[in-house]
Amino acid sequence: MYEGAIQDLIDELGRLPGVGPKSAQRIAFHVLAADQTDIKRLAAALTRVKEQVRFCVQCYNVAEEDSCRICRDPRRREDAICVVEEPKDVVAIERTNEFRGRYHVLGGAINPLEGVGPDNLRIRELMARLSSGKVTELILATDPNTEGEATATYLALMVKPMGITVSRLASGLPVGGDLEYADEITLGRAFEGRRTL
Amino acid sequence: MYVRRLELVDVRSYARVGVDLEPGPNVLIGPNGVGKTNLVEAMGYVATLASHRVSTDAPLVRVGASTGVIRCAIVHEQRELLVELEIVPGRANRARLGRSPARRPRDILGALRLVLFAPEDLSLVRGDPDQRRRYLDDLLTARQPRFAAVRADYERVLKQRNALLRTAYLTRKVTRQGGDLSTLEVWDTHLAEHGAQLLRARLALVEQLSPYLEDAYQQVSAGTGKAVAEYRGSVAEPTAEAILAALAEVRADEVARGTTLAGPHRDDLVLRLGDLPVKGYASHGESWSYALALRLAGYSLLRADGIEPVLVLDDVFAELDTGRRERLAGLIADAAQVIVTCAVEADVPASLRGARFRVEPGEVARV
Ligand SMILES: Nc1ncnc2c1ncn2[C@@H]1O[C@H](COP(=O)(O)OP(=O)(O)OP(=O)(O)O)[C@@H](O)[C@H]1O
Ligand SMILES: [Mg+2]
Ligand SMILES: [Zn+2]
User: Fold this and answer.
1) Are residues B303 and B309 in contact, defined by beta-carbon separation less than 8 angstroms?
2) How far is the CA of B286 from the centre of ligand 2 (A)?
């Protein structure tokens, strides 16, 4: 235990995701040793993020205005929506340059163990967007784990009767990797789930 | 395959020890508590990344040390592979395969195939159904690693579904109102999908295993009853539809009790000897022989798949009568490698040839 301010900082850093006690200590002492202006810039960025960043009123992605950059872009298709769990998933899909439609950020996945049900996610808001009739395709890009799959199934059950095409991202072998480096579990599953060509 | 050399650093009772093992039989002899099981437990850990005795890693590291290292030189099809595992309690283990670090410890799974029989296995016969389900599922995973993921998926969905039922149950108790079950149908679908995969695989396994089990028990006991294992499921058929139907049937009960009441997690492998169930009827020696036969059957099945695992028999001979000892020795004589431990040398039949080792506190010496 250190005294006062430095321990306060270690405690605060230790609360951040992915930061263990050892890293918290290392970052705290780095901050202590760093240049005053660098730290001022970091502190300002931390404050600004809470003051200025909002959630887009349409898709709930992070935004600096009422609507996010993607929802404001007139070149993006309005008839396709890609549903993701978190804003960081939007960034990941944007990097692929494959999708020219809009997004909908749920804010998580159905997870009874953590008390998260459909009412705690932005599902009602998604239904409202779909009921406008403009959307013809829905892509479910929730995480490929138990909770993400359950959320995708739940949405598919609700949306299919509306006559909207629903699809789910394929999962399998990591692209860019060599087959020989895939572990037995991943490769075994990919084999089991093979497609006819 | 066989383990040519085993080295332990700060593992269990050993500060540092190295044992040069041989193909064929290896007998480790030493008094109670000297560290025989500690050696074979370490080999089992390299094979499965888990101990057959404890569920946490801390007891594996020598008291006073912070990390323990297990090294195995494994010979398979004339090639030697070095596997190293560093056990760091409370944190991720580190593994090396050959000269390079493995990305994840689980990458070393499959490098050492091993079937271990230990006194704890008596619970396969006498214990609760979960022991027998685990026996089946472990064997499935040993044959096809993909089932590690199928099991994990099923367990996770089951946990979520139980949480949903439980929360709704508690909500109802407190507020006297419905409780939110709007996602139950979704969890049903996923439970049924993963469950059907698991169930299908278990049923196929039991069918393939049966002749080996009958044979193994026959050979150990010299024909004093036929060993039969029968899968008793909570579902009529191994299909997602059947699981959904079974869930629908118990729905009211599930909602009332707040837990999942149908699916492969409720099943059992019923073991019989002749017409009698083993549990509650078989003698100690018979139960012991039966548990041993279950492990030997798994071993034979892996061999039939073309996998030649290392066989470990911890403390098995002391519990058997002379005839059973002799027959067991004959049965394992042709194994690629078998490691036998015993406290009293006279318990191991002289007909079991091969290397003998004397285990002393912190040391192992070839005799
Ligand atoms: N983490 C540890 N650090 C130090 N010693 C340990 C540790 N874990 C277990 N031991 C010691 O190891 C001994 C048990 O060793 P082991 O179970 O291998 O005995 P054994 O030779 O198989 O005996 P038996 O014939 O009774 O089965 C005990 O004396 C125990 O105190
Ligand atoms: Mg022992
Ligand atoms: Zn937006």
Assistant:
1) yes
2) 21
Mean pLDDT of B261-280: 95
CB contact under 8 A, B109 and A119: no
pLDDT tens digits, A69-109: 999 999 999 999 999 999 999 999 999 888 999 999 999 99
Using pLDDT thresholds of 50, 70 and 90, give the confidence band for residue B145: confident
CA atoms of A163 and A171, how far apart (whole Å): 25
Helices (H), A53-138: 69-72, 87-96, 123-130
The whole-number pLDDT of residue A192 equals 72
Reduced to 3 states, what is the DSSP secondary structure of residue A194?
Answer: coil
- State the pTM of this model: 0.85
Q: Using one digit for the tens of pLDDT, what is the confidence trace for A157-180? A: 999 899 999 998 876 666 555 666
Please say if the pLDDT value at position B98 is more than 90.
no
Task: Give the SS3 label for residue A118.
Answer: helix
Evaluate whether the domain defined by A76-196 bears CATH number 3.40.1360.10: yes
- Taking the centre of ligand 3 as the mean of its atom positions, its distance from the CA of residue A159, in whole angstroms, is 20
Residue whose token pair is 């979960």 = B130
Name which of A22, A123, A153 to mutate to probe chain B: the one with the most chain B Cβ atoms within 10 A of its Cβ: A153
Answer yes or no: are the C-beta atoms of A32 and A13 closer than 8 Å.
no
B187–A contact, CB cutoff 8 A? yes
Size of chain B in residues: 367
Q: Where are the domains of chain A?
A: 4-52, 76-196
Q: How far is B156 from chain A (nearest CA, A)?
A: 7
State the ipTM, two decimals.
Answer: 0.78
- Minimum-distance CB partner of B159 among A113, A153, A191: A113
Tell me if chain A has a CB within 8 Å of the CB of B170: no
Residues forming a β-bridge with B291: none
Average pLDDT (B34-62) is 95
Is B161 in CB contact (< 8 Å) with chain A?
yes
Strands B310-314 and B276-277: unpaired
Residues B191 and B264: their CA atoms lie apart, in Å, by: 10
Taking alpha carbons only, the member of B325, B219, B228 closest to residue B278 is: B228
Whether pLDDT at A112 is above 80: yes
Number of residues that this document lists for chain A: 197
Q: Do domains A4-52 and A76-196 have the same CATH topology?
A: no
Pairing mode of beta strands B24-29, A165-168: unpaired
Res A171: pLDDT: 67
A117 to B148: CB separation less than 8 angstroms, yes or no: no
CATH superfamily, domain at A4-52: RecR Domain 1 (1.10.8.420)
Kindly list the distances between the CA atom of residue B31 and the CA atoms of A108, A121, B36, B314, B343, in Å, as whole numbers in the listed order.
57, 62, 9, 13, 5
Nearest to A184 among B145, B159, B163 (CB): B145
